[in-house]
Amino acid sequence: MVTEIIKDEFYRRLIEEGLTRIEKCLSLLSAEEIWHQENENSNAVGNIILHLCGNVRQYIQTGVYGQEDVRKRDNEFKTESRIETKDLLSKITTVVTEANAIVSALNPETFKSNRKVQGFEENVTSIIIHVIEHFSYHVGQITFYTKLKKNVDTAYYAGLDLNASS
Questions:
Q1: Using CA atoms, how far apart are residues 30 and 27, in angstroms rounded to an integer?
Q2: Element (H, E) at 117
Q3: Which of 12, 40, 76, 160 counts the highest number of beta carbons within 10 A?
Q4: What is the per-residue DSSP string for 129-151?
Q5: Please, what is the Cα angle at 30 between 88 and 53, to 5 degrees?
């Protein structure tokens, strides 16, 4: 069933890939690098992670599940929002784990229902796809920054033959 595939993809993209990659990048970066903002038009890795926490929570926990919307989006990008690396990792892990539990428990009919998130009327399927896409996009930014700063191969695909045709 398509809804089961979507649930599996949510877990795969946010937890198996996204969260694992964030953990790897945070382990390679110093606290100073995590919170470094290159210029006024870029965001620090730490702020991107806080933004992901806010986005996932607002879309899944609030939008899909109906929890109170406590997001203060502008605060996600403030330099004063700086927290310890272990707390940052704990925060994103908690939000993503809770979101996955919500998505994995959804019944197939819920995927067709509409919800309002950030002023947009969307069906639950679209909300889940948005979260997967948005999360992956920002994980890519975090990875790029880590590679740029550390000149490392993150080895996300170590041991896999990516040229294999089957």
A1: 8
A2: strand 114-117
A3: 76
A4: HHHHHHHHHHHHHHHHHHHHHH-
A5: 20
Count of structural domains, the chain: 1
How far is Cα 88 from Cα 7, in angstroms, rounded to an integer?
25
| Residue 61, domain member (yes or no) | yes
Confirm whether 164 is domain-assigned: no
Helix (H) or strand (E) holding 123: strand 120-123
Tokens of 50: 């806080």
Q: Check which CATH number belongs to the domain holding 120 and give it.
A: 1.20.120.450
Phi, then psi, of 162 in degrees rounded to 5: -80, 0
Is 158 among the domain residues? no
What pairs with residue 116 in β-bridges?
Answer: 121
In the structure encoding, which two tokens stand for residue 35, read together? Answer: 């919170």
- The domain of 105 spans 2-150
Is 155 contained in some domain?
A: no
Q: Compute the Cα dihedral for 82, 87, 89, 92 and give only its sign.
A: negative
C-beta of residue 92 within 8 angstroms of C-beta of residue 22: yes
Percentage of the chain beyond pLDDT 70 is 99
pLDDT per position as a tens digit, 32-77: 999 999 999 999 999 999 999 999 999 999 999 999 989 999 899 9
